[in-house]
Records
---
Amino acid sequence: MPASSSPVAFVLHGGAGVLADRSYDAELTHMTQLAEAARDALQAGGSALDAVCAAVKAMETSGLYVAGKGASPNQAGRYELDASLMDGASRQAGAVAALEGFVSPIEAARAVMERTPHVLLAGSGAARFCTDQGLEPVIDAPGYYTPAAAPDSRAIATGTVGAVALDQQGHLAAATSTGGTLKKVWGRVGDTPIIGSGTWADERCAVSCTGQGEYFMRANAAADVSARVRYAGEALEAAVDGALGDVAQLGGEGGIIAVDATGAVCARFNSPGMKRAIVHADGRVEAGVR
């Protein structure tokens, strides 16, 4: 790596909330592999945006998480998925909400960012756009889906995936994707596709959130992390703790992953665990659920 380049950094999450009596060995192995692949790609000069999109797409298609293939149906039996991404260097962003019928919502979100003047497309219009763009459709829905969520009695049961990265050029990026809360009302949209609430990236930091989205929306949690860094001069971990504390004060739970322009990384949660993997400064990968 050239001496003039930035240190690379990467963090991903597989969703907040874990069960004490369930094994997460498959998820830990998968997240570790994804983190290693992202580290290698970033160290080889790959972009932060490509790294987060690749990791999130792999999580969507794995069926191991409440996103993409692992999503659960809403109360109407439909699979409505949300995703967003943001490129910190340009502040370009793309998102889809309540999207039905496509394998990779994060690919759809990237297409919105790169091929339209818009940020967010929703519902049947988003699906029509994906068809026009030739994105891979789901074949034989609902048979394609293998819901990954365990039974959950909470009013807002959680499940999301996301990734944040810093590349050698000093650029930051974030991506987030979800199947939404379990047993959600038809048409419900949470924080994941809302830029500033569930996803944020700028020149200071990149952020991806997971948890009870209604509370993260009311706290504008992802952008709040950057605001705390910018205006209060807080270090990344303090900024994440402050934003997550605001969510908790409203009554919500979940987690936040973040990386800043110096390569500092953070993964914090106030839920019963959060599936995550972190690439440390020395290249070591650490994965955990609690």
Note: The radius of gyration is 17 Å.
---
Amino acid sequence: MSLEKLNAYCTSKLDALKAKGTWKGSENIIEKIIAPDWVIKGKLPNSSEDKNFGPRYLLVGNDEPHLLMNSNSYLGLTLHPEVAEAEEKGVRNFGTGPGAVRFISGTYKPHIELERRLAKFHGREAAMIYSAAYAAIMGILPLLITENTLVVSDQLNHNCIINAIRLSRPASKEIYQHLDMNELESILSAYTAANNNRRDSAIKRVLVVTDGIFSMRGDHAPLDEIADICQKYENGFEEGIITVADDSHGVGAFGKTGRGTEEYTQSRVDILIATLGKALGVNGGYVVTTGPVIEYLRETSPLYVYSNPITPSEALAATKSLEILESNEGLERLKKIRCLTSRFSIGLGKLGFETIAGEHPVTPLVVRDTNKTTALIQYLLQHRILATGLNYPIVPKGDEEIRFQINANHTTRDIDYILDILKHFSVLPLSHCS
């Protein structure tokens, strides 16, 4: 059958994205990584090495070395030799893939060991691996949301949470303004009062869901306050209030020992979802919670039951990353990204740029204009810096930004280099940069 009409439809939609300035365009293709010796050896740079540059990236069709400032690999473990060796060993022992979904023949010992380690790391009864954190959210929330469930969600929650709620059929859905705890409490108070005025409660369960770290801004949810508010109103609902957090950007990058937003806020949610593909540098997602909830999800979650897991070799690599995170080396890597993040954030402020202060290595340069964001990204690329511009609808109109991400393979010279490049942009007319 002809695709002419579909082609025309797709082309018109792409033209509309370009007209709005929200077209992402072609992707940069990384062809090669050039890493200094200290990265290849799995070390952090000493004081002398820190005066040199960190890894550089070559793009297809461009042989100039680029500084990567948009990687989620916060601890720099994607290039760690011990992590690579663990994955290579897994391939030799178990092959390149699981060969089936978990309940058929796709469960391997490395999967079970990683789940055990993750549960212990987070102080939970049990853990369960998904192919990705996005798949975990999509595969979990609809299983917890019934026709008698109220879902309450932060305004700036990640796209995966938004789509998972859309896939569900809750009795009601409420969105509170970003980090507005007064509005969250008002919502729960109003529904508690409504339930009390009904003979048969319309809302039996409440699901309060939030990002831990908000990936576009680097700020965090006050999980301690959320827990206190939910506990205050929990008895107003027959099946209580369940708190869920996606802390994919927090685990391994936030908190004194890298246990994420829970550690930073000294609190705990009922169900924690996170990723192996950011700070831990491998691939896959996971959930940690109570044993009965995990067992229920293993039996019912379609994105677990009917989808292949990560490979056994990836599970071994993630286990090694977790071991490094829990070691003195892990603490040193966390300390380093906090220091570099502070240096970069303070530097942006001195240059007159707007940013959002915080300890997380996501450091946004808030531009608040689509055209200027695009111009700044082009300017950075001209100076061999890879960064990500975020325009509407990825972020709300007026919140357009450049998202910079610090990782442990950066050096102080890298940070100072990009600040120097940004210093010159700040004094150029926009027309010179577009």
Note: The longest strand covers residues 62-68.
---
Amino acid sequence: MNQLVTDLGAVLAAAAPLIFATMGATINERAGVINLSLDGTILMGAMAGFAAALASGSVPLGFGVAALVGAAIALVLCVLSLSLGQSQTAVGFVLALFCTELSSFLGAPVVRVPGPSVPHLPIIGLAEVPVLGPLFFQHDPLIYASMLLVPLTWWVLFRTRLGLTLRALGERPAAAFARGVPVTTARYLATITGGALVGLAGAAYSLDLKQGWSYRHTFGIGWIALAIVIFGGWRPWRVALGCYLFAALEIVALRSQSMLPSLPTQIFQVAPFVLMIVVLALVNLAASPQAARRIAALPPSVRRPVAAVVTRLAAAAPAALGQPFERP
């Protein structure tokens, strides 16, 4: 029982940076902007956040710098795609490659240099509660913040006027414009906000989960974050579930490595990525017309439960995602 609680607590900790990245990407895409620069942004945030914290001795300053770096990269994406009309997909992909190499170049002086990290901060009075204490209340401020970020993002998106406007930007921007919303400006703000969260995700790795900086420190995580957003159907709670699922796969792979020492370690390192791709493929398959036709051909007694499961898995992207908006 103690080992299970420990492993579940480790899942919460391992998922925390992904929560920041995926919530940022969800905000971006709900506003109709595809941001493929996540992987490079996380790397730049990790490098800049660690370097700033190392130079100043201040972890909060490191997170602030990482957020600013993420916001600046998102601003470049906005200028090139929203203002100059270039393809959001192409610009984001180029930014991802550019920031990956730039992080390696600028981060060379701090490679494997010991530095500050987020302090452990158990919550007095709750940390000692059996089971729930070790699971939820014996972490650090970053992990607590990730737990709060998910309901906050959901509340803003689905329970506030701001969230209604933001979702309108991704579904029907022309209707939002007709109601007086400055679509391009609003997309700028949403994309920059999401970019800042992605930058924070980078610092969450270098100042907490994978302390320090090294060459391509978080390489590949941004693409997983994008896959999780699709898996989650652009819904904060389901996206968070995807983050915890991926973190659980990582913990299982880590445990399996010690149980099966004869297998190459590379198998366990890539297994979570492969399994996440399989899950994403199943979600996309559930939303395909072919799946709908095959379900319709099933006997009624089987069709109903299968259709219910597929309905929950399938998710449609925002209708105007990636589409440029031209003012009438």
Note: Residues 68 and 181 are 26 Å apart (CA to CA).
---
Amino acid sequence: MLTERSVSKAAIRLGMHQPAVSSALKRLRDFSGDPLLVRSGSGMVPTVAGQRMLEPSASILRAASMLFSDARGFEPANARNVFRVAAADYLDPLFLPQLVAGIKTQAPLCEIEIHPLSPATDYRTQLAQGEVDVVIGNWLAPPQDLHLGKLFDDEVVSLVSNKHPAVRRGWDAVSWLEVEHIAPGATHPGAKGFIDGHLATLGLQRRIVARCPYFGLIPGMVASTLLVLTTSRQYCERFVPTLPVTILPSPIAFPKMMYYQLWHERTHTSESMRWLRERVKSAAASLKKQ
């Protein structure tokens, strides 16, 4: 009722008769001591108390849905789950499309929500409250308070324009640190990022002159400038056939970039969530074969 803002529409969505929904609303009003929904023009709007109830109620319903769907057993072909995956776009450009295709092929009635990771993202809270089911990304030191599964690792390289002087001259650690770098924005609060986090452990800092929150656009920016993007080889290789760019080895030794999926204890034994995590693992494994 809070989302539909209409008793009649809520009744249709719930498959109930309108008087039964009106009766339920009356009981909720008596229980909460608040009208929850009030008239506004031709429709209804939630009160402040009603608005505060919206997300906690949604979280409870998601948990209940998971409880009863798992109690019946999870059958992908007939399931109607909503799978929520949080991921940054610095992953291999083929990863999320293959994940979605894999889910829809085996569970055609299920819905999929892809959530972004950003400096404002508190993914621990999102996992705990059921706002997302898994978080996918790479961490120099992955969090220890969540379950994690390794997906794949990759070498750190730099992507530059074919016209960049380093293509002809090469570079050493000093010149690499001094060239103009482009970097993505942080993916969660306080994040330094894999590259800069490792440089900090060495007491080094590169010269970042441009930042872009849209990782998928950065290779195009590199192609038309002398900016340097440093990230995983697999990501860079996707753009070499279509853009005038070259992959160069990094003159500074980096550990391999390790990609993980993270999930909360609340979903650890859920059959549907186990199935989702297997789809994530399968999509990641398929990338190495291409």
Note: The chain has three domains: 7-70, 82-152+258-287, 156-255.
